[in-house]
Amino acid sequence: MFNWYHSLNATERKTFYACFGGWAVDALDTQLFSFLIPTLIAAWSMTNAQAGWLGTSALISSAVGGWLAGVLCDRIGRVKVMKLAIAWFFVFTILSGFSNSFEQLLLARTLSGIGFGGEWAAGAVLMGEIIRPEYRGKAVGSVQSAYALGYAFAAILSSILFGTMAATDAWRWMFWLGALPAILVLLSLRTVREPEIFLKAKNRRELEGKKAVNPLMIFHPRYLRTTILCSMLALGIQAGGFSIVIWLPTFLKTQLQLTSVEVGYHVLMLTFGSFVGYISAAYLCDAIGRRRNFFLFTLLNWVFIPLSLYAPDMPGLSFVLNFLLGFSLLGIYSALGPYFTELFPSIIRGNGQGFSYNFGRAAGSFCPALVGVLSSGGVFPLRDAMAIMAMSAYLFVLIAVSLLPETNGRDLSDELDDEELKREADVSYPAPTRAR
Q: I need a labelling partner for 216 at 20 to 30 A (CA). Which of 40, 70, 86, 380 fits?
């Protein structure tokens, strides 16, 4: 089952470990905030709507950071951008722990989001170009499982801190300790090299005196359809996930009357399910193709989301449903990285991937805020608001995947000989000459 991993060369393995760590840190930051919502609501007398905007602000700024990182990836390199993004994230996550008001935390979270949005964009294209085609889906999908470890660490950290110290201190330490793993990721990136595909394309353009590719190239008529559909796909997946994951601890605490420690155990079960889902989807997207994988997990989400929210409160049942929810809700992410890598050519790959994923993240980030608004205004109970937003989001997934091609097994090196592509990049959108 893991023969593909043993077949990876030294370069592929170093990249695998560094990206795995980077995405785990990204997930840790995203998930730890969800544990803090009830505490911050009580400490600062916030409304659900304000709490929702705290989560949404980081996701919106991460979209900006992701697209900016994608553009820089195509200009200065994938590894360099990943280092910059992680360092940025580290600084502002630490500062989040020193906030003393809603406004201060809103600013710190917004700036922090720029970093972790850029980290995903750089890591996804780096993995996609380094790993050989026959292993790309399994490798990139397996790296996606790092999100499960990040979620698990957030749950464990929450249980320990809220179980051993006052809530007014615990939430600050959640930010401070949650930022520390970023240092290990930066250290691991010291030995990771830029992908040969990127370096060859970059060197060829520089030797021929070609102009830099304008960021708007992803909106060229040749690529516009792909950009729009990839953005829709990312929107559906992330809107569905955010609507559930960010509000789940609050739902468990208010609806099932669980303590903060008990909520941590339930989220840990969801995280375990997501880990199994990530790995399963990673293998499936190579075995049955990217498109069928998305169709399958969309159907699973339409089954497990209502079951987990509306099932009767029975001993042990909620743990099983949280496992299944994590399997489908987060497992679907695994095919995004390899699919986007294969849909965009090298000269705009970071840009296209960064924009599409993070447009979806930005647009999808409004869903947690809408859940908060709907539940705060008495229009819907919290569980109804979560279900409506999440279930509706997967319609975007079905539409996008129905219109996109299958790319399983695509050889990225073929594009280096695409003269038509290179000519279009040079004349369609003039840009300043790259400094050499």
A: 86
CATH class for domain 10-194+212-406?
mainly alpha
Separation between Cα atoms, residue 175 and residue 355, nearest integer Å: 27
Strands (E), 300-355: none
* Segment among 74-88, 134-148, 169-183, 196-210 with least mean pLDDT: 196-210
Backbone angles phi, psi at 212, to 5 degrees: -65, 145
* CA separation for the pair 299, 67 (Å, rounded): 30
pLDDT the model gives residue 427: 43
Residue with tokens 């240092």: 183
Domain locations in the chain as residue ranges:
10-194+212-406
Query: For the chain, how many helices (H) and strands (E)?
Result: 20, 0
Higher pLDDT, 405 or 143: 405
Angle at 121 (CA atoms; ends 119, 126), nearest 5 degrees: 95
User: What is the Cα Rg of the chain in Å?
Assistant: 21
CA–CA separation, 315 vs 372, rounded Å? 28
Which of 24, 19, 28, 23 is CA-nearest to residue 245?
28
Q: Is it the case that residue 224 has pLDDT exceeding 80?
A: yes
Length of the chain: 436
